[in-house]
Amino acid sequence: MDAVKVGLLGVGTVGGGTLNVLRRNSEEIFRRAGRAIAIERAVVRDRTKSRICPLEGIQLSDDPLSVVDDPDIQIVAEFIGGLEPARTLILRAIAHGKHIVTANKAVIALHGNEIFDAAHKEGVMVAFEAAVAGGIPVIKTVREAMAGNRVEWLAGIINGTSNFILSDMYHQDRTFDEALAQAQQLGYAEADPRFDIDGTDAAHKLTILSAIAFGIPLQFDKVYCEGIDRIHPDDAAYARQLGYRIKHLGIARHIGERIELRVHPALVPERKLLANVDGVMNAVLIKGDAAGPMVLYGAGAGAEPTASAVVADLVDVVRALTADPGNRVPHLGFQPDALSDRSIARIEEVETAYYLRISALDRPGVLADVTRILGDLEISIEAIRQQEPSGEQTHVPIVILTHSVREQAMNQAIARIQGLESIQSEVMRIRLETLE
Amino acid sequence: MDAVKVGLLGVGTVGGGTLNVLRRNSEEIFRRAGRAIAIERAVVRDRTKSRICPLEGIQLSDDPLSVVDDPDIQIVAEFIGGLEPARTLILRAIAHGKHIVTANKAVIALHGNEIFDAAHKEGVMVAFEAAVAGGIPVIKTVREAMAGNRVEWLAGIINGTSNFILSDMYHQDRTFDEALAQAQQLGYAEADPRFDIDGTDAAHKLTILSAIAFGIPLQFDKVYCEGIDRIHPDDAAYARQLGYRIKHLGIARHIGERIELRVHPALVPERKLLANVDGVMNAVLIKGDAAGPMVLYGAGAGAEPTASAVVADLVDVVRALTADPGNRVPHLGFQPDALSDRSIARIEEVETAYYLRISALDRPGVLADVTRILGDLEISIEAIRQQEPSGEQTHVPIVILTHSVREQAMNQAIARIQGLESIQSEVMRIRLETLE
């Protein structure tokens, strides 16, 4: 089957990231979508600008209509951002029967009602997962996975820049201005970070989330919005003393006959997962009446995480265009004839770090014997603690953390340790995973 | 349009929860799916047994074929569990052209290849979100939202019983046997908890997750599997001293040309989100090459969370059966003609708790003045701290946490406090959200 032809409006961070991901993972994506995705055209304002991606094989132009009016283009991916000309171009592409994938939260929050209305009439898809929380599939989750629930409320850390600044104020004891400067230096805040700081960006995203959570029209003008620029380091410190962290939240709540929509800093109990979301990460807590509370956590911005959401939307559209409804998503996510026969490792081949607890007779030389055995097998030790024997015990527990080692070597080591005269019970071993 | 007709095999915890959710949220579900979902038939072994749901209006039988062979039934929802007769009934329903929704991880892990093959040939859907991690949409996320990624690895707390026991051992200093007894008493472990304790249940789920993550066939027999029954309270204590928590994990990792599939207890650094998943909650960390690390957290079991996943699957099937592909999922999740006009509250009507920081002249009576103002407006105080003035300051910061109060009352209180002679700068206020 022919490749689906896509045109890009804009090849900056998100557009460039999308090109890179489509290229790097083309085989994986083809196995999933059952059809190739070809970027045929791209609109760039300045052809001489250096890009994060190569542009070979793509027809470039500085005229957006070269994409929007091309009858061969089936999907327009819009990465211009802002309200105009994005709105006009999207509506024009829809009028030509093209599907839209966009990362533009502003245009969806402010003109989504008009855009969706047009798309519904034309029978085309408008996909916007990348508009909220980068790589985290919060749109798909609320729209599809929560379909059986009445959503009671949701609360999210949905602006990475604000969250970076608040985390930095908390962990590094910086003032707002110092933390903002730090964010700009690291590329986490733009030269003009106004919309991040004053809450507008979070309000765009909350507008979208609240509409899909409650089935209400997009109502950006009804969102109460407060930024983080008034937070003083003293507030961070006092909040900490009281067992709280300050986070910038977007909150949508169904309460009685009304809906609350608000974006503002808030104290959050420090034991909560949301309180521990640091740096530029995003997280959204959704409370459904059936599912209960659910948290989605991940990278909320950046070229590749946002591209991950864009490509997921592209694959969704391609699947819908390609397969009969019953086979839209393959059962295992990959086309049945594209499953791989990659072999599964035996456990002896697996490498992990280890925790060992060894119960030894309290006599000299035991520790030396154990470390020698580990050393002979080239197992290096990360930490070792000889615990105090409790009460009248004649056995001393020795606790060891090792660096990463092949299971086979560890099996040998444990067999030898258990062969020592001073070791009279089984060595306890638990694998250690750093999750990194 | 006619309702979609569904037959249930089994009306226990999951089947009963599904009936309750479909009934309670029928309006919300209709607004989303654009079509009613009618439970026409249900198979129950014992009609006299008390149920968590009413069964009025449903044709009951103790013969599974009354559902599987009924030409009017379009979707069979299987909640029998276990391998047989579930496998045979599912295959027979597929042969009759019916779609399947199931919560049965064992039959998918062991017979999924055969079932999907049959379904693919018949062009019917088999949906199994409820088989893994209850209400958390981990199947949908990996299969659709991660479609642009090469999944590098995933690690999950995917058995609530094991996690409850380990949490209980850690927080309450209980032995394994004591914690298991506690889990059984609270209904978190079954009378025969063998498959939870020995890791088999987690291995079923990991088999499914690894297939959709890597595009490999389901290979339950290749999963290395270790349970939690050997963990001693000493291990929990030593791990804690070293900065770790012990969790029972399912891990699938793509490494070189091989794939690791393993289920076992593991030490996890205590700062990690996964280390802080307590009780019967589930969480899955997925690392995609584009999306980066992503965590999904929520209720992994129980009638309602599992029903949430079942109903999401039902809505997915109904949407695919009903709409043209381009309009399968409405843009805002709800049908365009079913958006609600529920009003958005003004911020003055919103109730939250508050943090206040008041900078006061260091003179007697200020605290009394402030608390009197709050009392007059019926704002009750949760905590109050007068901080030490730092250095040569003549101002003392007073920090107050209030209980929940209407914003309007708080505005009045702040205006009055700022009117006090001893208060010479603006009162800092930050809302406080318990996220509960």
Can you walk through the features of this model?
The structure is a homodimer of 436-residue chains. Chain A is α/β, with parallel strands linked by helices and 436 residues long. Chain A has three domains: 4-134 and 305-338, 3-Layer(aba) Sandwich (Rossmann fold); 138-301, Dihydrodipicolinate Reductase, domain 2; 347-432, 2-Layer Sandwich (Alpha-Beta Plaits), CATH 3.30.70.260. Helices cover 35% and strands 25% of the residues of chain A. Chain A has helices at 13-24, 26-33, 65-68, 86-95, 105-122, 138-145, 160-172, 176-185, 194-197, 200-214, 233-241, 303-322, 366-376, 407-418, and strands spanning 4-9, 37-43, 59-61, 75-78, 99-102, 126-127, 151-157, 224-225, 244-255, 258-269, 281-288, 292-299, 343-344, 351-361, 381-386, 395-402, 405-406, 428-432. In chain A, the strands form three sheets. The first copy, chain A, has a six-stranded parallel β-sheet, with helices on both faces. A six-stranded mixed β-sheet of chain A has the order 8-10-9-7-11-12. In chain A, strands 14, 15, 16, 17 and 18 form a five-stranded antiparallel β-sheet that branches. In chain A, strand 15 (381-386) and strand 16 (395-402) form a beta hairpin. In chain A, helix 1 (13-24) crosses helix 12, helix 4 (86-95) packs parallel to helix 5 and helix 5 packs parallel to helix 10 (200-214). Chain A is globular and about 85 Å long. The relative contact order of chain A is 0.12. The mean pLDDT of chain A is 94.
